[in-house]
Amino acid sequence: MRSAEAFAKTRAEGRAALVGYLPAGFPTLADSIKAVDIMIDHGADIIELGLPYSDPVMDGPAIQKAADRALAAGFRTRQVFEVTEAVAGRVPILVMTYWNLVERYGVDRFAGDFAAAGGAGLITPDLIPDEAGDWIAASDAHDLDRVFLVAPSSTEERIASTVAACRGFVYAQSVMGVTGARAATSAVAPELVRRTRAHTDLPIGVGLGVRSGDQAAEIGAYGDAVIVGSAIVNCYLDAEDIPSGHQKLAELTADLAAGVRR
């Protein structure tokens, strides 16, 4: 299932989509699969699977800690296809990954294996369209979405070239710096969405910092998708055990889903 299907549904319902992020393999490989099912059961429209990486440049402390835990347990790149295959079919599944991991695996090979597992596309935070020739060719060959990022610092020319290379949706990085749940949403996010919308009809997802249904409702008023990552990871980092984390995740996802549906 491609992300366009999810956005067609949410637009018909007059609301933003809820996008939930979790690193594959965290808190364990099996429990990352269960966590995705929990998010879908409680209202997530699209899932982002993080590909754990030992040298992140954008991830905040929560996601770094989760990735480290997955890697310490022996997670390997190929296992992201196992998780994808286990959860694909109900909602679009995208992988968010640093580009080095895809390049090392083999760009066309990664695209082919991910498509075969039922994946929808990739979000590539450290890859710009100017340097994405191999990925653009591979995503075309395997019919995958490609989601690039725009930021408050992006020029109009950069926004235009970025959205022209996107397929599926555009990721609006609403705050500068690393990821992490925040008490307040970014004040510059509405302006970034406005600037981006001037260059594309693609849906625009807003990410970095959302941790509550109230914040999801606020962002859903102007964005086409609300992307939540660190708050989801914290459900497990802050829990006494994994079953308690599953319960926290169910409650948080339900709150976020109610927020985007206000």
What's the gist of this structure?
The protein is α/β, with parallel strands linked by helices.
**Please, how many domains?**
1
Order of helices and strands: HEHEHHEHHEHEEHEHEHEHH
Give the structural class.
Answer: alpha/beta
Overall morphology: globular
What is the radius of gyration computed over CA atoms, rounded to a whole number of angstroms?
17 Å
Determine the strand fraction and express it as a percent band.
5-15%
Strand order of the largest sheet: 5-4-3-2-1-9-8-7-6
Strand count, sense and closure of the main sheet? Answer: 9 strands, parallel
Helix content: 40-55%
Secondary structure tally: strands: 9
Distance between the termini: 26 Å
Chain-averaged pLDDT: 94
Count up the helices. 12
CATH fold name: TIM Barrel
Notes on the protein architecture:
The protein is an alpha/beta fold and 262 residues long. The protein has one domain: TIM Barrel, CATH 3.20.20. The chain is 47% helix and 14% strand. It has helices at residues 3-12, 29-41, 61-72, 79-87, 99-105, 107-116, 133-141, 156-165, 189-197, 213-220, 230-237, 242-260; strands at 17-23, 46-50, 93-96, 121-123, 145-147, 149-150, 170-173, 204-207, 225-228. The chain has a nine-stranded parallel sheet. Strand 8, helix 10 (213-220) and strand 9 form a beta-alpha-beta unit. Helix 6 (107-116) packs parallel to helix 7. The longest helix is centred in the last third of the chain and has 19 residues, at 242-260. The chain is globular. The protein starts with a helix and ends with a helix. Mean pLDDT is 94; it is low at 176-184.
